[in-house]
Amino acid sequence: MVRLKQRYILFDILYPPKAEPRNSSEREVFESFHKSPEDALLRMHRSSPQSIDGKSIIRATRKAIQDHYGEFGAGAVGQGLMMKYFSNKTSTGIIRCGRQSCPMVVASLALINCIGKEDIIIRCVHISGTIKKCEEFLIARNKELMIKLGHLQDDKNEFNNILNAFQNTGDDFANVKDNSEDEDED
User: Fold this and answer.
1) What is the chain's pLDDT, residue by residue, as a tens digit (186 residues)?
2) CATH number of domain containing 54
3) Residue 157 domain-assigned?
4) Which of 10, 42, 53, 152 has its CA 20 to 30 A from that of 144?
5) Is 85 a domain residue?
6) Distance CA 123, CA 120 (A)
7) Is there a contact between 102 and 6 (Cβ–Cβ < 8 Å)?
């Protein structure tokens, strides 16, 4: 019996500024967007509105597959496409699909540019064979993102101090082990 292999696609949703700002607050956001990479990163990451949920993303993905790959694509993906996790607060999700149809799903996610009335960019961040590895990658990526934005600078310094302490302890262990080997030889 052959086991069907799955792939898990970790994605996040970005919200770009509107190209044609209509009021002063939209114009201010558009003008401040290019000032620094951290500012652009903060502007594009935000929580998703209630209108964007797992079902609407799967529906938009199936529609994009149908539009760009036709009946062949819709049949290849079939019922294997499933939303395993989606958080409106972080605008991050995990989709499960078949191994053969994974490139088609990734391409169709990249081709989605709006859901409902929201202009969005869906960015595939990681592809894995297990959902656990996707979760671990997401945790590590979020830590790096927080450090990059400067929110966890103190935690980073504390982590480096702990790491140095363990490395120093490892050196002491190596010396003890070497001494014990010398005693055995006598």
Assistant:
1) 778 889 999 999 988 877 666 676 666 666 666 666 666 666 777 788 888 999 999 999 999 999 999 988 888 888 889 999 998 888 899 999 999 999 999 999 999 999 988 889 999 999 999 999 999 998 888 888 777 766 545 555 655 665 566 555 444 434 434 443 444 444
2) 3.30.70.3250
3) no
4) 53
5) yes
6) 10
7) no
Helix locations, 33-101, DSSP H: 37-44, 54-77
* pTM greater than 0.70: yes
- The structure tokens 């605008």 sit at 91
Domain assignment present for 55:
yes
Q: Side-chain half-sphere of 52: how many Cα atoms within 13 Å?
A: 30
* Angle (deg, nearest 10), helices 131-149 and 37-44: 130
What pairs with residue 94 in β-bridges? 10, 85
> Among all chains, which residue has been given the structure tokens 């539009």?
67
SS3 category, 66: helix
Number of domains the chain contains: 1
Amino acid at position 154, single letter: D
Residue-range definition of the domain harbouring residue 124: 6-130
